[in-house]
Amino acid sequence: MAKEFLISDLPNIAEMQDVLQKVAKKLELIKLISEETNDLLNSIGLKGIEFSAKIGK
Amino acid sequence: MATIFEMLSKWQQVNVEAEIPAIIQRNKDVAAELNRKQLKSGKTSKGDPVQPSYNSTIYALDKNRSNSLPGLGTPDLYLTGAFHRGFYAQVKAGKSIIFGSTDMKSSNLEAKYTKEIFGLTRDNKQVFLDNTIMPELRLYITRITGLKFT
Question: Which of B3, B21, B64, B106 is a plausible cystine mate for B101, CB 3.0–4.6 Å?
Answer without folding.
Answer: B106
